[in-house]
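Data deposition worksheet. Section B asks for the primary sequence of the deposited chain exactly as it was used as input, without tags or linkers unless they were present during the calculation. Section C holds the resulting structure in token form. Section D is free text for depositor observations; keep each observation to a single sentence. Incomplete worksheets are returned to the depositor.
Section A, Depositor: J.P.
Section B:
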Amino acid sequence: MSDSNSMSDTEMKHTCIIIDDMKSHQLLLSQMAEICGLEVIGIGENGKEAIDLFDSSKPDIVFLDMRMPKYDGFYAIDGIQKISETAKIIAVTADTTTDTFGRLTSMHVPVLSKPYSMDTLKKIVIDQFPSEK
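Section C:
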């Protein structure tokens, strides 16, 4: 039996991984994703870990910080899209420059701008699964 905040037993729970080099951002986004009904199945700290986690766990959604040391978000997007051209990647960034948004748009990656609200997170997750609206 499920309560009003959880998904029904017949609904599939979507999975996600969260990639961010800051532990506090990992924790916040994990909690918010779970409230949105997602199951967090992995957390990483850089773009290389994002690719490895995606390849091993095949999540439904990747939440990806763009600015990380060593391997950034663009490195991860390139690697993940080589594994799966249809991967659902959401860039999570405070970088509001035209260059970053242009690159992400050309890569077909939606942006969740920091700071974000629960409503914004829910909308961007729902938009990833249009057939379930």
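Section D:
The longest strand covers residues 39-44.
The radius of gyration is 14 Å.
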